[in-house]
Amino acid sequence: MAPALPDVILHLLCEELALQRDFDTLFACACTSRGLAIPALTNLYRSHHVSPVRGGGDDEAIPLATQKLVVQKWSILWRSIIASSLNATLFPYCRYIKTLDLRDLVHLLENDKFKGKIQEHFFSKELSRFQITTETHFRKTGKRVVLHPPSIIDAVGEVVTEHTPMLEQISGPLLSHALIRWSPRLPRLHSLELWEGKALEDELLPPSIKANCPNFDALSIYTWVADDRDHKLSEFIGGIRPQSLKYLETISNTGIGAETFLALSGHGETLKELRLCLRSDSLPHLPLLRGCTAIETLRMEDSDGVMDLEKTQNDVFLEVIAWLRECKNLRSLSLTNFVNASALVLPLLLEENIHFRKIEVDSYVASTNRAFHQALTHQRSSLRVLFLSGDGDEMFRDDVDILVDSLTELTELRELELRGVSDWLKDEHFIPILDRLKLLEDLYISGLEVTDDILEKVAGLRNLRSVTFMAMSKFTMDGLLQFISKLGPGNQGIVIMDSLADPTTLLSDDELALVRETLAMKVGGRLEYTPFKDPEVSEFEGDSD
Fold it and tell me: For 381, left (φ over 0), alpha (ψ -120 to 50), or beta?
């Protein structure tokens, strides 16, 4: 009989299975013996937030007949976590979790398959206390009693947080006083991902976080509806421990502005990642962020997209550039829907002490930005990801040549996405680019026309995992099969998106089936093939009466 493995080895093995998201093997381990169950279940529930059954699984990949079974497993996952907080399970599953994603529980409660026996079992026995309902009026069916997710989420969070000493992150829609009640129980909490900012409005919350959650350093807010929301957010940020916040994200319009920018200066030495959705009227206050010079990742979106700071408030424009020049550790910069964003990024590209790994710029006119395209080459040794999206109209030959020449210099790129700015490019332009960018893993290109000639160069990208052709494509079956034959191990699982197939050269159903089968057998890849549809032609044109 072989000697038993030491506990430390068992824990390491289960930890590795969790990292690989091998939930089936972890479950099998948990069923093997009580000694192995503890490390297996610990890692199983510690990784429950990435389980493939959460969210009902991938609806596109799951046959309709089995979707109900997936929802059933999904409900069992949540039921086991909640029941364990009531000491109604053999093992204390809730004690193992590090992430409590209440958004997922809301999605379960609102899922159209969460009904009948599934819902009855979920709320049976000790969980019956959580079946909180409300009366709602429907136009067709009149009044009905339905579940009330906000109250259920609050009740579940109340009991679960009493038994989750390892909890580090909470996500979801929370009632305004929930965090006041929960924070004293969460000494390891470091991150909040909130649906609504109103969960932060209680003035007692910042001192509670400060006193009870010494590791708190990350905040994400989806939305916030309140007249004084900028003031309330600034009060929260200013009330937690100074120089502690590392991450802040506002996903949609939260009214963030001058007061919050000023409060963030109190975290200028620690703030590493800042992702903001702004209104145009907040842009003139951006220089108040000048104390935040430790930023490594900056993403800013102008939700209005109407203010050109360079033309209307040039002094502010120059102050923003001066601030960003002091961010010597800035590695990723994304400007979305910013008018003339390229003019803001241009001087930063030329800065010797800034070495970008990622640049994302959209809403710019390619024909008037030759200097911007040329400046990209100053980041050739560090740049790994480049997303350019804008207006490619009125580009002349010189404009195209400068863009192509600049891109060929960026030989360290792993991801390249060109939308709009490359609309006039064809094989003869893309081929020299692909001939030099041998390390590409993800490629998206819009263009005028592409043929089998470009496929030969794409096949030479040994690490390519996804490619999208948003150009009129004239690929043949032979060309695609030849391309597939040259793919290697580094292209395993490749996804090919041919989004504008020329109607005059469309592959037949049989040809398409052969190409897809060959691609799947060669590297486990997938081909999405969509014929071009002329927007000027009605989809009913040519149909007989």
Answer: alpha
